[in-house]
Design goal:
By secondary structure, the protein is α/β, with parallel strands linked by helices. It has helices spanning 47-55, 81-87, 99-102, 109-120, 126-139, 145-149, 158-170, 188-205, 240-245, 250-257, 297-301, and strands at 3-16, 19-32, 36-40, 62-71, 74-75, 92-95, 176-180, 208-213, 225-230, 233-239, 307-310, 313-315. 31% of the residues lie in helices and 25% in strands. A hairpin with a 2-residue loop joins strand 1 and strand 2. Helix 4 (109-120) packs parallel to helix 7 (158-170). It binds adenosine-5'-diphosphate and magnesium ion.
């Protein structure tokens, strides 16, 4: 399996009136064809800004200041906005947390799927677009798709709306789907259904998926590999079984301890004490040093290099050095 996407040394700065936020600080990761990579980390770790940097949809005050995003042999950071518009939706699609903000409340859902096809599949006839829109509604598990086609977003439940958002994202058969906290705004039973849907879809249509989540618990069933982000850096990456059974970074271990386990009612659930670093003035050493139980003097002073802790598995921690 080849790499469909390879990000190297991605560095993103966001200028604010208070100073420069170093939101992403030299992040490396790749995505293999037809695999699901989960990017996990607490809120503020830099997950969303990393992916917005990849997609070229950073906020106006944000900029990729270093690094490359290789997609099918081309560096997307060198693309013009016009070239990126061709890539977005058609080659790489992204879905966000809140389906309501991605949908147009005044347009029927079927038409919203067709808009995507109009933009990127100019050769399609009107009738073909409608057929495809209904096919996509059915693909994402919406029953009675012909009737749903003519409904507005407010006539659908939250879970249905997120299904529509996924249908729009998949309309042009993107090679990569990036889902940023796609289930966070939904209640728990619906979350599970959407995750199941994404797993089924991947088998059916063979897209490569990046799923972003702050909850390591949701990745066990859906991801092949995991990338753990903290303080704008990638601190550990590995195959999903390795991350769960042999976590190497204290931050990853902390995230694992904070997953609620259904079968251990009342068991000790430990949030990681402390708060993430201020990325306006990020620590010079390991970003987790201030919260780490095992912290040493070197951790505060220098950022550790990555150490191999198994096949496909590496972590940036001085204790592994
Ligand atoms: P995550 O998705 O992991 O929760 P983000 O990528 O959204 O984190 O944020 C990374 C850092 O960038 C945080 O310190 C956050 O406060 C900052 N940030 C994100 N968006 C903006 C913005 N529009 N303006 C200023 N700072 C931002
Ligand atoms: Mg985010």
């Amino acid at each position: 399996m080849g790499k469909i996407l390879e990000v190297k040394n991605l560095t993103v700065h966001i200028k604010t009136h208070k100073g420069v936020v170093q939101a992403v600080r030299g992040v490396d990761f790749y995505l293999n064809e037809q695999e699901t990579l989960a990017v996990v980390g607490e809120s503020g770790s830099g997950k969303s800004i990393t992916m917005k940097g990849v997609m070229g949809i950073l906020p106006k005050n944000g900029k990729v200041v270093e690094g490359s995003v290789m997609f099918q042999g081309n560096d997307l950071t060198k693309y013009s906005e016009r070239q990126m518009q061709q890539v977005r939706g058609s080659e790489i699609a992204m879905i966000f947390q809140d389906p309501m903000t991605s949908l147009n409340p005044t347009m029927k859902v079927g038409k919203q799927i067709e808009e995507m096809l109009k933009e990127h599949r100019k050769e399609m006839s009107k009738a073909d677009r409608k057929t495809r829109a209904i096919e996509l509604l059915s693909l994402v598990g919406i029953s009675n798709p012909e009737a749903r086609y003519d409904q507005y977003p407010h006539q659908l439940s939250g879970g249905m709306r997120q299904r529509v958002v996924i249908a729009i994202a998949l309309a042009c058969d993107p090679k990569v789907l990036i889902a940023d906290e796609p289930t966070t705004a939904l209640d728990v039973t619906i979350q599970a259904q959407i995750l199941d849907l994404m797993r089924d879809l991947q088998k059916k249509i063979k897209t490569s998926i990046i799923i972003i989540t702050h909850n390591l618990g949701v990745v066990a069933n859906i991801a092949d590999r995991v990338a753990v982000m903290y303080g704008g850096k990638l601190v550990e990456t590995g195959d999903v079984e390795d991350i769960f059974h042999n976590p190497c970074h204290e931050y990853t271990k902390g995230l694992l301890r904070s997953i609620p386990k259904a079968h251990e009612k009342g068991g000790e659930l430990q949030a990681i004490p402390g708060t993430p670093p201020d990325l306006m003035e990020p620590p010079v050493g390991c970003p987790f040093a201030a919260r780490c139980k095992e912290t040493m003097i070197v951790c505060q002073k220098y950022m550790p290099d990555y150490t191999d802790c198994g096949k496909n598995h590496k972590s940036a921690c001085w204790m592994l050095d």
